[in-house]
Specification:
The chain is built from 22 helices and no strands. It starts with 16 loop residues before the first helix and ends in a 15-residue tail after the last helix. 54% of the residues are buried.
Length: 465
């Protein structure tokens, strides 16, 4: 059954707005903090600590492969936690997702590295396993937080409320990279590589405890409470969503595609490209100073920025991510989700074609690339917490939105850093193919948006499959 047009003008009752904002925002901030801590470490320290017996490019690609394990896990997490979210409620599922990812993150901080005698094989294997558990948690977290916000939203404000959990992405990024930046500037490189990198992972335990406390105080969302009261809770929401909502699953997956590719190019790839030496001579001198082997044949040049300097540049860019995430909600309410996202995706397409001139424009060009890219990221990511859930009826909404969101993560985010590094290497250090890759993914998202109807006025209550 497709969603019907809202006829009631009453606002949902239950959780007060302040509690909705805090619970949806703090949960996704913690989840994304945990996720970005790993993403940053995957570039900065994990290649040397967990994949040391290879040339630098192969070690980096191995680290990115472990990074991608979480994206394989995310659809599994979406099915698992989506089932419970549509069976026993949003609140309980959200507590479980936070615990899953939080425990895995702390354990990564306690893990021996491959440099520890006897752990050469087990350390990388356990890293991948814990990364998989991180993905399980995040696979169910986002959709639950999105429903917590939007199913508590008054009429005409779902897209605005939906920006609350979306703000967790820039906040988590700033927290994670801010912690790494502080550690890198307050301790030696040797101490950071030996034990300092563990601090952000272990410290997440404090954030998880706070998040769980806040979520235990929640009431069930009004929309799902009506499903319970009317006896419409499904025994197998996963089977029902594939039977009755298979087309929205496909639409939602490709609507998210450009967003995922853009984000992981703007974070993981730009950090790699920005901090790679700009010449063979510089790279060789740095390797010799660190006492590491250097393979000139496998070297591809980057921008040559110092790691800390580029992290600061990234954080400045992410501030614009947060600003335009907030801006996107009112725009999506005024003009409609579909029109807003179509024009934003056109902007992403054009942006991909500007990679080479912007990356080649010195400091000003790189900052312009980061600011424009993250602004587009806010504009496209902000409305997604409203758009994807609106594609599905209430009793399969958690499962449907979670599956779309996380299958898209495999097609987009899981492979984006790996593909980008491969294209960068294939082009001999140029980013032209990386930009073309982003533009091509934007075309696929545009097609998905063009074949999807506007969802702004769909009902959120009394709407079941």
């Amino acid at each position: 059954m497709t969603a019907s047009v809202t006829s009631s003008g009453t606002s949902p009752v239950g959780n007060p707005r302040s509690r909705v904002v805090l619970a949806s925002l703090i949960g996704t901030s913690i989840e994304f903090y945990d996720f970005y801590v790993y993403a940053t470490a995957a570039v900065l320290v994990f290649p040397a600590l967990f994949f040391p017996n290879a040339d630098p490019t192969t070690s980096l690609l191995s680290s990115f492969a472990a990074f991608g394990a979480a994206f394989v896990a995310r659809p599994v997490g979406s099915v698992l936690f989506g089932h419970f979210g549509d069976r026993i409620g949003r609140k309980r599922a959200l507590v479980a997702t936070l615990l899953t990812m939080g425990i895995a993150t702390v354990l990564i901080g306690l893990l021996p590295t491959a440099l520890t005698p006897g752990w050469e094989f087990f350390a990388p294997a356990l890293l991948v396993l814990l990364r998989f558990c991180q993905g399980l948690g995040l696979g169910g977290e986002w959709s639950g937080a999105a429903l917590l916000a939007t199913e508590n939203a008054p009429k005409g404000k779902r897209a605005i409320y939906g920006t609350f959990p979306q703000l967790g992405a820039p906040i988590g990024f700033i927290l994670a990279n801010g912690v790494f930046l502080i550690l890198a500037t307050t301790m030696s490189a040797e101490d950071f590589a030996a034990w300092g990198w563990r601090i952000p992972f272990i410290a997440s335990a404090v954030l998880v405890i706070v998040g769980i406390y806040v979520r235990f105080k929640l009431l069930e969302t009004p929309a799902f409470q009506k499903v319970i009261d009317q006896g419409e809770v499904l025994k197998a929401p996963v089977a029902r969503v594939f039977k009755t909502s298979w087309w929205p699953l496909i639409q939602g997956t490709f609507i998210m595609l450009a967003t995922y590719v853009l984000f992981y190019l703007m974070t993981t790839f730009t950090l790699t490209y920005g901090t790679t030496a700009s010449s063979v001579e510089t790279a060789q001198a740095a390797a010799e100073a660190a006492g590491k082997p250097f393979d000139a044949a496998g070297f591809v040049p980057g921008l040559g920025y110092l790691r800390n300097a580029f992290l600061i540049m990234l954080i400045v860019g992410v501030v614009f991510f947060g600003i335009f995430t907030l801006v996107s909600g009112p725009l999506a309410e005024r003009f409609g989700r579909r029109k807003h996202l179509i024009w934003t995706t056109v902007g992403i397409f054009v942006f991909g074609l500007l990679f080479v001139p912007l990356f080649g424009g010195g400091f000003v060009g790189v900052m312009a690339l980061l600011i424009v890219g993250f602004s587009l990221m806010g504009l496209t990511f902000g409305p997604m917490a409203a758009v994807l859930p609106e594609l599905f009826p209430t009793n399969v909404r958690y499962t449907g939105s979670a599956i779309s969101y996380n299958v898209s993560s495999i097609l987009g985010a899981a492979v984006a850093p790996f593909i980008a590094v491969a294209l960068w290497k294939a082009a001999g250090g140029s980013t032209v193919l990386v930009g073309v890759y982003l533009s091509a993914m934007a075309v696929l998202t545009l097609i998905a948006l063009l074949v999807t109807k506007e969802t702004k006025d769909v009902a959120y209550e009394n709407n079941v499959s």
